[in-house]
Task: structure prediction
Amino acid sequence: MTSDSSSLPSEPQTRARVRRGPWPFIRDILVILIIAILVSFLVKTFLVRSFYIPSGSMENTLLKDDRILVDELTPRFGGYDRGDVVVFRDPGGWLPVSYEPAQPPLAAALDWVTSLVGLTASDSEEHLIKRIIGVPGDHVVCCNALGQVTVNDVPLNETPYLKLGEGQQAPQEVEFDVTVPEDSIWVLGDNRDSSQDSRYHQDQPGRGFVPMENIVGRAFIKTWPLDRIGGIDGHHDVFSSVPAREPQ
Result:
């Protein structure tokens, strides 16, 4: 019985197969990794971005070390509303100056890559997160006889989101009487007695207002820890009776 030699690989073919080695597999992995990083970079730059909460200023809406996603795209078309919870860059002087030691090049590169794919949010401590109380043109005042903030002469019932101490009916009063200029917002923290927000920066050049260009986006979902996954409520009904005013 004779064998069919045509079914056996020729010697040159065998050598070619051996010569391939691990390189094609490594190349494919590198290509996939590069594409993933580029896609993550585009998503982070134009669509959504991950942050963690570094303080308790937004309790109980957001707790310290919560992780959130921020919508960067939608507000570019629809703008921002009273009640929106927004992440923004420091307008200047809101955050203490911090000095971080220089990282070794390899560690810095690794931190940059992991931030692109959402595994870290290394710039969270360079940003702030608060709730919008006043939009351009609004006259915002603290406080009426009940300790309520008023917007365009309408008192706000903020109990759905304010953190108050036991027996406390309203936050401690920090007086302000402002009209929000064009392309700016007035922001306050939900944990009002523990929030360094617009009220405490009225003596600075920005007078406590946050320029629209400093806003990164609207926080819309909590992603960590698992037992806190869920949407972030804008409580827009609190502001539903507030009339609009044109900025002056």
